[in-house]
Amino acid sequence: MENFANMEKEKKINIKEADSDNEIKRIWEIRNRPELRKVSTNQKEINLIDHIKWFEEKYLKNKKNKCFVLNADNQTMGYCRLDLNDNNEYMVSIALDPTLQGKGLGTKLLQEAIKLLNTDKTILAEVKTGNKPSLKLFQKNNFEIYNKNKDYIHFRYITKK
Ligand SMILES: CC(C)(COP(=O)(O)OP(=O)(O)OC[C@H]1O[C@@H](n2cnc3c(N)ncnc32)[C@H](O)[C@@H]1OP(=O)(O)O)[C@@H](O)C(=O)NCCC(=O)NCCS
Predict the structure, then answer these.
(1) Whole-model pTM?
(2) Which one, out of 28, 51, 66, 75, has a CA that is 20 to 30 A from the CA of 58?
(3) Which atom of ligand 1 lies at the shortest distance from residue 40's CA?
(4) Atom number, ligand 1, closest to the C-alpha of residue 39
(5) How close is the Cα of 97 to the center of ligand 1, in Å?
(6) pLDDT, tens only, 25-74
(7) Is the CB of 107 inside a 6 Å radius of any atom of ligand 1?
(8) Tens digits of residue pLDDT in 123-155
(9) Which uninterrupted H or E stretch holds 77?
(10) Would you call 97 exposed, middle or buried from its count of C-beta atoms within 10 A (0-12, 13-18, 19+)?
């Protein structure tokens, strides 16, 4: 399988905070892919106008929440959202375009997003029990399990800022 090291030579990978119209639209496209809706907590299809309004309120106007994107050859292929909850902890949500999954880019995006977030707050993740790639992603990136039930596994990452 093609891995990230090989891919880096071919594609120019850049991870940054999402701010352009095109990046925000690509986040919507990726989020609405049927494969991704299946593993999301909210499985409904979202329309573009609602998505743009939601994104502006949640990330552009509210500087506490962060949404990073992974651009490959200037095309947005993944996102990592970090949303601050009422307990002052970040909740992470990460997704890649299905064409780029399983090549190590999820790890690259998660690590870089945490670095760019640059916080001393705890980061939480909620993963469906059957979502193997996601469970592996958090386990191999030093997230610890603090709670599980039949539907979800909850992870926690204590930042070492
Ligand atoms: C979760 C996700 C971001 C992970 O990114 P990725 O680039 O696919 O993951 P990585 O390549 O960095 O690898 C993660 C691990 O999962 C493994 N993995 C990938 N696809 C897998 C699959 N279908 N079944 C089992 N393991 C799998 C990889 O082998 C790797 O483990 P390893 O390093 O021991 O080999 C990506 O798969 C995705 O977008 N999934 C759909 C959205 C989603 O589930 N988001 C998480 C919601 S909490």
Answers:
(1) 0.92
(2) 75
(3) 47
(4) 44
(5) 11
(6) 999 999 999 888 888 777 788 899 999 999 999 999 998 999 999 999 99
(7) yes
(8) 999 999 999 999 999 999 999 999 999 999 999
(9) strand 75-84
(10) buried
Tokens in use for 24? Answer: 């925000």
One-letter amino acid at 37 equals R
Under DSSP, the state recorded for 85 is -
Neighbours of 26 (CB within 10 A): 20
Domain regions of the chain by residue span? 4-157
* Exposure string for 62-83, b = 16+ CB within 10 A, e = fewer: eeebbbbbbbbeeebbbbbbbb
Could you tell me the fold of the domain covering 4-157? Aminopeptidase (3.40.630)
- 117 alpha carbon – ligand 1 mean position (Å): 22
For ligand 1, say whether the CB of 104 is within 6 Å of any of its atoms. yes
Listed in sequence order, the residues at least 6 apart from 66 whose beta carbon sits closer than 8 Å to its beta carbon are: 17, 59, 81, 82, 113, 116, 117
Q: How many residues does the chain have?
A: 161
For 25, 31, 85, 86, 157, the CA distances from 111, given in Å and listed in that order, are 23, 20, 21, 24, 12
